[in-house]
Amino acid sequence: MTRRSPLLLSVLLFGYAFLYGPIISLMVYSFNESRLVTVWGGFSTKWYFELLDNDQILGAAWLSIKIAAVNASVAVVLGTLAAMALVRYGRFRGRATLETMVTAPMVMPDVIIGLSLLLLFVSMERLTGWPQGRGQTTITLAHITFSMAYVTVVVRSRLAHMDRSLEEAALDLGARPMKVFFAITLPIIAPALAAGWLLAFTLSMDDLVIASFVSGPGATTLPMVVYSSVRLGVSPEINALATIIVVIVSLAVAAAGLLMYRQEKRQQD
Amino acid sequence: MKWPALPRPEGRQFIIGIPWFWLALFFLLPFLFVLKLSLSESTLAQPPYLDIVREFKDGLVVLAINLGNYELLLEDSLYVKALISSLEIAAFSTLLTLLLGYPMAYAIARAPRHWRLPLMMLIILPFWTSFLIRVYAWIGILKNNGLINQTLMALGLIDSPLEMLHTPFAVYVGIVYSYLPFMVLPLYATLIRLDMTLLEAAADLGCRPWKQFLTITLPLSLPGVLAGAMLVFIPVMGEFVIPDLLGGPNTLMLGKLMWTEFFSNKDWPLASALAAVLLVVLIIPFMLLRHFERRSEEAQ
């Protein structure tokens, strides 16, 4: 910044305070002794222990983690294929459709995606008998569909900016394309794959609306439990849960940021 | 930049084909089912609708198209009001997000080089933590005995709590808060690519800073402004969680209405008709978004 304008700086500070204030307030109140969330009753960690005793929340969290992990792994494969197609294959038949189909899920309102997928699953079951009923499988399929769009964006920008001379050298020396992909391309784009996996995982852990539409009896994910308890008002247990989520995410993102920063520095040196 | 096509055409078919068919099956095809269901009648059964293609015992196949759902949407003023109110809320909150997001993106793009990455990370970080929980955090802040009211009352600025939760104000706060990163990201991407020599030339020729901004920076960053605006406007049109948790019973939005029709009234056909209307409304903003994205890809 050539001239540091005080107005600009204060807007920036206000913006960050606006982004982080609510999260920090949740974290502070998670250590509040009193159940009346807004009255400070002294420091306590009891809500964390109550959370550990809450079988409903733990069960839902476990289901969400299972769905998120499968979703992230499949989404990374599909998203990488889509990114390869868009970056490497120039013009091909169906390119415009593919471009639209990987952009649209990111902005399409969740209620539309959720309802339309539910109707698809109901019709598919009528016609083919699969998927039988709705639950873990249908939620995972739905999550893969929107997560892969995000993975595509992340991997695509890495693929577009990578140096292809190594790949060309390997091809010139007679390596097979599959070998080149696994020995050279994959290690180069690995950070983007890791970022894409994490992003897909968090998006899945976070989704309430789509999962509510395509879920059936017996499959309750973590956001569904959080939503039904939040509708009844502020709850200290949810504050504790929020704190745990925020801490885990911040550590993961900070680690990823540090890794990227070091890599960038090494490239500059 | 053009890459030579990889050898092995059969591999190419798989690389393009697999993601293509996945998205065609799970993303495009379902919209046809929404359209089909919006033309059917609701009934008390499982699933709760009558198929538009009906086969009778004597082999007669009847196509029963029912426009009643769309007629209802037009006749009952509730739905028209919800559409207008969704448009209003989405447009106004997009503007608010822009007013906060633009100066932030501008300040980050003009910050010293080694500050930019951490500052952008701080913008993106909240997006990684649970959306639902971040919206919920505002309940504790905005409610009658919440943080803001307690602080203001302790300072003696007000005598009775201000009604903030379950008002349009809370909905706007929630939307700006949740969608700010979507606005800042494309704005930052355009502002960082801005050719600084243009500004220097203008300054050398005696152009004042605010005029530089209005005649050079703002017009050149317009693609980023519009891309960011669409990234906020489109999903907000169908937003459910924010109006449901922070808005009041009078907050009418299409996403919330669809949820009620589907989950509370079990009227799948009417919910589908609402989804179809929302989809049609969103086509133009979506085309705009694709247009600006393509332009920024070409610029790179």
Automatic annotation (TrEMBL), chain A:
<keyword id="KW-1133">Transmembrane helix</keyword>
<protein>
    <submittedName>
        <fullName>Putrescine ABC transporter permease PotI</fullName>
    </submittedName>
</protein>
<feature type="transmembrane region" description="Helical">
    <location>
        <begin position="67"/>
        <end position="89"/>
    </location>
</feature>
<keyword id="KW-0813">Transport</keyword>
<feature type="transmembrane region" description="Helical">
    <location>
        <begin position="141"/>
        <end position="159"/>
    </location>
</feature>
<dbReference type="GO" id="GO:0055085">
    <property type="term" value="P:transmembrane transport"/>
</dbReference>
<comment type="similarity">
    <text>Belongs to the binding-protein-dependent transport system permease family. CysTW subfamily.</text>
</comment>
<dbReference type="Pfam" id="PF00528">
    <property type="entry name" value="BPD_transp_1"/>
</dbReference>
<feature type="transmembrane region" description="Helical">
    <location>
        <begin position="101"/>
        <end position="121"/>
    </location>
</feature>
<feature type="transmembrane region" description="Helical">
    <location>
        <begin position="238"/>
        <end position="261"/>
    </location>
</feature>
<feature type="transmembrane region" description="Helical">
    <location>
        <begin position="7"/>
        <end position="31"/>
    </location>
</feature>
<keyword id="KW-1003">Cell membrane</keyword>
<dbReference type="InterPro" id="IPR051789">
    <property type="entry name" value="Bact_Polyamine_Transport"/>
</dbReference>
<dbReference type="InterPro" id="IPR000515">
    <property type="entry name" value="MetI-like"/>
</dbReference>
<feature type="domain" description="ABC transmembrane type-1">
    <location>
        <begin position="61"/>
        <end position="257"/>
    </location>
</feature>
<dbReference type="InterPro" id="IPR035906">
    <property type="entry name" value="MetI-like_sf"/>
</dbReference>
<feature type="transmembrane region" description="Helical">
    <location>
        <begin position="180"/>
        <end position="200"/>
    </location>
</feature>
<keyword id="KW-0472">Membrane</keyword>
<keyword id="KW-0812">Transmembrane</keyword>
<dbReference type="GO" id="GO:0005886">
    <property type="term" value="C:plasma membrane"/>
</dbReference>
TrEMBL record, chain B:
<dbReference type="GO" id="GO:0005886">
    <property type="term" value="C:plasma membrane"/>
</dbReference>
<comment type="similarity">
    <text>Belongs to the binding-protein-dependent transport system permease family. CysTW subfamily.</text>
</comment>
<keyword id="KW-0472">Membrane</keyword>
<keyword id="KW-0813">Transport</keyword>
<feature type="domain" description="ABC transmembrane type-1">
    <location>
        <begin position="83"/>
        <end position="289"/>
    </location>
</feature>
<protein>
    <submittedName>
        <fullName>Putrescine ABC transporter permease</fullName>
    </submittedName>
</protein>
<feature type="transmembrane region" description="Helical">
    <location>
        <begin position="169"/>
        <end position="192"/>
    </location>
</feature>
<feature type="transmembrane region" description="Helical">
    <location>
        <begin position="213"/>
        <end position="236"/>
    </location>
</feature>
<feature type="transmembrane region" description="Helical">
    <location>
        <begin position="117"/>
        <end position="139"/>
    </location>
</feature>
<dbReference type="GO" id="GO:0055085">
    <property type="term" value="P:transmembrane transport"/>
</dbReference>
<dbReference type="InterPro" id="IPR000515">
    <property type="entry name" value="MetI-like"/>
</dbReference>
<dbReference type="Pfam" id="PF00528">
    <property type="entry name" value="BPD_transp_1"/>
</dbReference>
<feature type="transmembrane region" description="Helical">
    <location>
        <begin position="20"/>
        <end position="39"/>
    </location>
</feature>
<keyword id="KW-1133">Transmembrane helix</keyword>
<feature type="transmembrane region" description="Helical">
    <location>
        <begin position="268"/>
        <end position="289"/>
    </location>
</feature>
<feature type="transmembrane region" description="Helical">
    <location>
        <begin position="82"/>
        <end position="105"/>
    </location>
</feature>
<keyword id="KW-0812">Transmembrane</keyword>
<keyword id="KW-1003">Cell membrane</keyword>
<dbReference type="InterPro" id="IPR035906">
    <property type="entry name" value="MetI-like_sf"/>
</dbReference>
